[in-house]
Amino acid sequence: MARLSLAEARDLVAAALTANGASQPNAASVARALVGAEADGLKGHGLSRVATYVAQLRAGKALGDVAPVATRPRPGVLAIDAAHGFAYPALDLAVDALPAIAREQGIAAASISRSHHCGAAGQPVEALADAGLVAMLFANTPAAMAPWGGRTAVLGTNPIAFACPLPGEAPIVVDLSLSRVARGNIMAARQRGEPIPEGWALDAEGRPTTDPAAALKGTMAPLGDAKGVALALMVELLAAGLTGALYAGEASSFLDAEGGPPGTGQLIIAFDPAAFSAGAPERFAALARAIDGQEGARLPGARRLANRERAAREGLEAPDALIAEIGSLAGRNG
Q1: What is the CATH number of domain 69-179+222-300?
Q2: How far apart are the C-alpha atoms of 63 and 180, rounded to whole Å?
Q3: Average pLDDT, the chain
């Protein structure tokens, strides 16, 4: 296993991206997101994505030299065109702009179209919560789940995320996909040559499988069965139908370099707590204490924060082969 500091990992990832057509600002944005996810223990959204992103840059499936463009069609709405680039620069733009709009209007939304894989969905909402806002994110992904009772994928795993500030503490962050697990976990298992647990996915014939390759050709098992499918439909309508992005069934895969840009979408809604009640953050903290104070109970994200603190102290540990692969893409090996 190799060990890198967070700064070394960000530098390595950014170098791999710039060596293959990404501008320095875009590469830095992507590197922050991927290394941040790796540090949080979300490896399916971390370093394992670099080779796929590079392949997509080379194929023109992700455009590395474009910049997102924002307009204000209404006072409380920020419309962002990601221009078929990576999602992270567009998400950064939303996080930078939404606090001022939300404080002026009480509530603000950013729609992102012609976008790409948004990675760990909790990152943008956590950043907004660090700025004192309550935030929600909805993202659609390429087709991976069948409607309840069907076999053909028409819905994405469609992550949702929520964050709210706590006075003097890290925000509460909820980040989950509407499949039983994120599809990135299956991709990471395939890269490691490991089976997946039964119950995560179905093969192309609708049968349960522990083979990650068969799972990636089939469909994901929904979280909560029919309820998860209903929520995925809701996210599809918010993140793609509302924003003008492509639906899951129209989008190309995030997992390979085949086809054109995926063109998926994200919707972020930010609330200024002060516009709703004077003591909202303290009320958030009261509920957090009621949960965290119970023996054996923990708030969502506690493990993520522990992983992050350890990574900041000790650096990231990753397979030698993965680091060598990224180094080769950056032109640093041999």
Answers
A1: 3.30.1370.60
A2: 31
A3: 95
Q: Please name the residues in contact with 333: beta carbons below 8 A apart, sequence gap of 6 or more.
A: 324, 327
A 10 A CB-CB count for 287 gives 13
pLDDT band at 332 (very low <50, low <70, confident <90, very high): confident
- CATH topology for 1-59+301-334 is Hypothetical Oxidoreductase Yiak; Chain: A, domain 1 (1.10.1530)
Query: pTM higher than 0.90 for the full model?
Result: yes
Sheet holding 201-202, edge to edge: 208-209, 201-202, 219-220
CATH 3.30.1370.60 maps onto the chain at 69-179+222-300
Closest CA to 160 of 143, 128, 138: 138
Task: Provide the strand spans (E) within the chain.
Answer: 2-4, 69-74, 77-81, 107-115, 134-139, 160-166, 169-176, 201-202, 208-209, 219-220, 264-271, 316-318
The two three-digit tokens of residue 282, written as one number = 């303290």
CATH 1.10.1530.10 region(s) of the chain?
1-59+301-334
Using alpha carbons, select from 60, 115, 56, 52 the residue that is nearest to residue 84.
Answer: 115
Determine whether 92 is exposed, middle or buried from the number of CB atoms within 10 Å of its CB (0-12, 13-18, 19+). Answer: buried
CA triplet 289, 308, 266: central angle to 5 degrees? Answer: 85
